[in-house]
Amino acid sequence: MLPKEELLKGVENRDCVARVIDKAEQALKTWKIVQTDFLSPPEVMESQQALKQLTEIHLVSWGGYPQAERQRLAIAREELPLEPTQVQVVVLEIAGNFLFDPANHRDFLGAILATGIVRDKVGDIIVLGERGAQAIVVPEMAEFLEMELKQVRSVPVKTQRIDARELKVKEPKKKEMTTVEASLRLDALASAGFGMSRSKMADLINNGDVRVNWKEITESSYQLKPGDLIAIRGKGRLEIGEISVTKKDRYRVQLTRYM
Length: 259
Known about the structure:
- By secondary structure, the protein is of the alpha+beta class.
- It has helices at residues 4-7, 14-30, 41-51, 105-113, 142-148, 186-194, 198-206; strands at residues 34-35, 57-62, 72-77, 90-95, 122-127, 132-137, 151-152, 155-156, 158-162, 174-181, 210-212, 215-216, 229-232, 236-245, 251-258.
- The protein has 7 helices and 15 strands.
């Protein structure tokens, strides 16, 4: 038996990570590759942190494409080979004419969930404007959705499986920059990276709009380190790179912004 309570110490998404630990136990007992449903970014991160304490297993995550936000985990004994390609996902095309009744991400997700499917069975949804959308789902739900998903908003749709290579994912725009700051505070580095005033950034932080490594941070003085990822709703993401100290004892920080 795995030490579940010990692995769950300090975990925010306890129910989800507990289920992942159960999957890990199943992988150990059966000598098979075991897969989770789709997890949100903080759930993926906390699951990875919990399971990295176990030397007898390893895991990979995949959501259909490299930048996928929602991902499944595949877990196996350390002795078994494990690749992202072994994580099973299906891409569905939801095609219709949305020229006169545009639909957004929430509309497509709502239509999928209205068929009776739970959120965990659905990964990312890529909206294609007036042509419809593409949705990534667990394989066992694909046939059901092909039969049941017939309308989004007022628009009739045809839902069918397509090859994963047909995913229409835009590569995120990337901007690299360097800033020199007196401290490694969240408000200082984030305001530099996102190009806004420090007071505006402090407001966003206080309002709960800023996440660091997918955890909501409401303290402007929160100290950052290399590898940290800052996300702001509607503004993209900012990765903290190499940090060095200048001759005047200030911090020179490499930043990468994804838009």
